[in-house]
Amino acid sequence: MKTQHQHQSRREIEVLKVGKSSLQNREISKSEYQILGHDVRKRVQKRGICNAEPCPNLKGFGEDTSAKILESKGRLALPWGAFHLTNHGVPPSLLSALRRAALSFFRDTPMPEKLRYACSPSAPASEGYGSKMLAGTDPSASTALDWRDYFDHHTLPLSRRNPLRWPESPPEYRDTVARYSDEMKGLAQRVLGLISESLGLRSSCIEDAVGEFYQNVTVSYYPPCPQPDLTLGLQSHSDMGAITLLIEDDVGGLQVLKGDTWVTVHPLQDAVLVLLADQTEIITNGKYRSCEHRAITNPDRARLSVATFHDPTKTVKISPASELINESAPAKYRDVVYGDYVLSWYTKGPEGKRNIDALMLDS
Ligand SMILES: O=C(O)CCC(=O)C(=O)O
Ligand SMILES: [Fe+2]
């Protein structure tokens, strides 16, 4: 008779086979796991995510907010730190082209070819194909791996952009990512401008505080997971930079935290989802909070999303905008050099918003 442990490991391997084989239409060998610097079996780990009540249906999530953001001169109602932008001016054909090219990389490219682009297992946020968000950090910092593969492109400033490091197939891949990066930069500037104005600041205030954008375009691919209640596609976190612009397919799986309830975001065709990130929370002195979010998996369909991060240069010191600080409204956050923030984020792991919480001053 088998012991409980034997049952457990057999079940985990089964889970892996199904998950990974749907990713690449064949079984992956153990040595391939190891090239990526970790054992994918660690992805299967019990997490306490099943206590969530059925998530309220946020139909029209952000639709009203997106209208307001373009018209409002007053404080924006952004209790979620996240909202959908429609009528954003980025051609829907470009959004679809990017999703198509990225999907083709994950679905159609054989694993040996994918591994030509493997990111460095020892450096966090290195460019390329990988599946371990906290690469290069103390292994005890995060034992559970996400049920996700990704491809990270360094896109801005232009000195970081080298399309030769991106997939060469399908043939339009590189050009599509480059055009998409340029469009997202313009959109991020507009949204940060509107957010600044809504606080009575000059429109370039947040952008000036951030400095030249360090932009990364990260495609996430979440294979179907036969036991979604045992995993997360991506653990709970807030993004560390200034603003993230996200597009996704129609599968759904992104959740945002409101109070202590996880709420599923319903994909909105051709919309761009804005996720406010930690440096915007600091610069606005907490008037706008960054969005805590995570991705869940599902047993039936793979999901694809593309997050475009806009971050400060590592040497920039971030602090609450001086215009927002006075005797009755003191600074709520300690100043931080962005590079130190990133280092701490990768060393400790995100665990929700622990890194920004650690900068909060007692009031
Ligand atoms: O896949 C998603 O919807 C979320 C991705 C994300 O949060 C990230 O890459 O930081
Ligand atoms: Fe994120």
Entry keywords:
alpha+beta, four-stranded antiparallel sheet, 13 strands, 31% helix, globular, binds 2-oxoglutaric acid, binds fe (ii) ion
Q: SSE layout and pairings?
A:
Blueprint: H1 4-24, H2 30-35, H3 63-71, E1 82-85, H4 92-108, H5 111-115, E2 128-130, E3 149-156, H6 173-198, H7 205-210, E4 214-222, E5 234-237, E6 243-248, E7 254-258, E8 261-264, E9 272-276, H8 278-283, E10 293-295, E11 303-311, E12 317-318, E13 336-337, H9 338-348, H10 354-357
Helix pairs in contact: 4-6
Domain Fe2OG dioxygenase: 212-312
Protein name: Fe2OG dioxygenase domain-containing protein
InterPro entries: DIOX_N (IPR026992), IPNS-like_FE2OG_OXY (IPR044861), IPNS-like_sf (IPR027443), Oxoglu/Fe-dep_dioxygenase_dom (IPR005123), Plant_2OG-oxidoreductases (IPR050295)
Notes on the protein architecture:
With 363 residues, this protein is of the alpha+beta class. It has 10 helices and 13 strands. The chain has helices spanning 4-24, 30-35, 63-71, 92-108, 111-115, 173-198, 205-210, 278-283, 338-348, 354-357, and strands spanning 82-85, 128-130, 149-156, 214-222, 234-237, 243-248, 254-258, 261-264, 272-276, 293-295, 303-311, 317-318, 336-337. The protein has a 7-stranded antiparallel sheet with strand order 1-9-6-11-4-3-2. A hairpin with a 2-residue loop joins strand 7 (254-258) and strand 8 (261-264). Helix 4 packs across helix 6. The protein starts with a helix and ends in a 6-residue tail after the last helix. The model is unreliable at 1-74 (pLDDT under 50). 2-oxoglutaric acid binds at residues 218, 220, 234, 239, 246, 248, 254, 293, 295, 305, 307.
